[in-house]
Amino acid sequence: MISSILIANRGEIACRVIRTARRLGIRTVAVYSDADANALHVRSADEAVHIGPAPARESYLVGEKIIAAAKATGAEAIHPGYGFLSENAEFAQAVIDAGLVWVGPKPHSITAMGLKDAAKKLMQEAGVPTTPGYLGDNQDPAHLAAEAAKIGYPVLIKAVAGGGGKGMRLVEQPEDFADALASCQREAAASFGNDVVLIEKYILSPRHIEVQVFGDSHGNVVHLFERDCSLQRRHQKVIEEAPAPGMDEATREAVCQAAVRAAKAVDYEGAGTIEFIADGSGKLSADKIWFMEMNTRLQVEHPVTEEITGQDLVEWQIRVASGAPLPKKQAELSINGWAMEARLYAEDPAKGFLPSIGTLELFELGEVEGGRIDTGVYEGAAVTPFYDPMIAKLIARGETRDEARERLSDMLHDSAVWPVKTNAAFLINALAHQDFAAGKVDTGLIGRDGDAMAADPEPSDEMLLDAAMSLVPATLAPGLRLNAAPRRVASFLLDGEPVDIEIEGEGSGTGETSVLIAENGKVWQLQPWRVDGSGNHGAHDGDIVSPMPGKIIAVDVTEGQSVTKGQKLLTLEAMKMEHTLTAPFDGTVAELKAIAGAQVQVEALLARIEAVEE
């Protein structure tokens, strides 16, 4: 068995690997950037090494620094986690060449599956069904548009080196193709250093089904059944579950065996995932499920597989990398119950899912029977703009799908994070959606009903009243006479917005200037205030500011232009994603400071919208 391991990653996955390594008695080494000096994975490891500035390209993506850290600390092996260098064949080979153990597949397997076009060709040769599309070398925009027309709209443009929902665009009509292609290539070049794309037919009512596979150095390959990751937003997974709803045994056997054939075709070792797209317009069947791609690493959603199989996949990775055979044979693996996972992001659904940064002054996650929390942060930690905004994964297991779903919802209901915003309320709404609850989900569900799921909730009247009473002194309500009536109206600020609350009787205030209200996965701040009753927009309501440091990649309006509520103003690239900033109400662009190509800091004024006079 490996005796010491360096984790070439950060956050939740680094903490996850450390947890299993500690149980196995393996010494762990963490690496960290300037931004992560006080991170949880640094605190949890036996030893930690600083590897550079906050930007990933200067720290976590510099393979030479990571290998040097492993050698300096005497680490025997390197575990790449997911993301960053986990699917970089050159880095894997460099680790091996340095005399270290690579906890992952062989470099040639990563190479074979690393580019989507080459992988699809390989799968076709191995008899694995693939979706129709264009995999050619000609990347001329006119040629790609012509190929898309041949395939028939709608189509997906996908970066051949893409992953994690990045470098992917859905195009529903020919006139949108050119802009979507340019955006996709731009994002792919920034994220992966490769702007080559493929085109494939977009399946109506698509479901995302993936199969966990595992191979060892003794020629064994098994599957650990399927996961359903169909609930997605902008091609990024939101809630994952195992097993897949509506999957009968015959279809499961066919799909899982196809996944095993795919892994064997590249001489696969370690953990991997074969991703399929299924036609979800009717009953799942093997003839309507096609190979999409292979992820040659551990997946973010691996806990749901662990929960239904009772296996520790990180332990499997370490044992296989140590040269041992797989811990279980196929006949020894079975499905037990149901599991769901929700990705908790530091983002604000009410503001177009813009990432939220800051210090986690309050960080409490709900706990239930059958629940599990995987996180890389703690109360008092900082959420920075440099990395992916996922701050935790909440996982719930139950005997049935409904039990798992209800337990996961309870965990989210009981979670409270402040002042950083999260998508907890959005996740609660998604779990309660009638189609998701019934297992009728496809990748377009959030696109169709996402506005309702993302609607900004309000605290209940009962919670508001309790909070208000805790701020009102026992002898006097703010700004009111001692002889006032027993029922009085006092004015407050709820997250900075004025709200009047009817006070009943005497308060219980102790001099606090604010109080937090936590309900349904969201937290609000209530403060005493007095207002004049005006409903007009405030002087700063129309200020469009940068939510974080980033680069302006497109400006879609000009100064003096009239705009409508929700109209696209500009696009900001930050936290490895493109974010669209829109007009908060109908008005005029009174001031425009945004310049395409410019770098901006957090809260920099980019534009100012003046409301239309009524």
Question: Would you summarize the structure shown here?
Answer:
The protein is an alpha+beta fold and 614 residues long. It is 27% helix and 32% strand.
Number of domains: 6
The separation of the N and C termini measures: 73 Å
Q: Average pLDDT, to the nearest integer? A: 91
- Which residues form runs of ≥5 with pLDDT under 50? 475-485, 530-539
- Please tell me the CATH architecture of the largest domain by its name: 2-Layer Sandwich
Describe this structure in words.
The protein is of the alpha+beta class and 614 residues long. The chain has 6 domains: 4-103, Rossmann fold; 132-201, ATP-grasp fold, A domain (Dna Ligase, domain 1), CATH 3.30.1490; 207-336, ATP-grasp fold, B domain (D-amino Acid Aminotransferase, Chain A, domain 1, 2-Layer Sandwich); 337-454, 2-Layer Sandwich (D-amino Acid Aminotransferase, Chain A, domain 1); 461-528, no CATH class; 543-611, Beta Barrel (OB fold (Dihydrolipoamide Acetyltransferase, E2P)). Helix content is 27%, strand content 32%. It is built from 16 helices and 35 strands. The strands form 9 sheets. An 8-stranded antiparallel β-sheet has the order 14-13-10-11-12-15-22-20, with helices on both faces. α4 (89-97) runs antiparallel to α5, α12 runs antiparallel to α13 (424-432) and α13 crosses α15. The termini are far apart. Mean pLDDT is 91; it is low at 475-485 and 530-539.
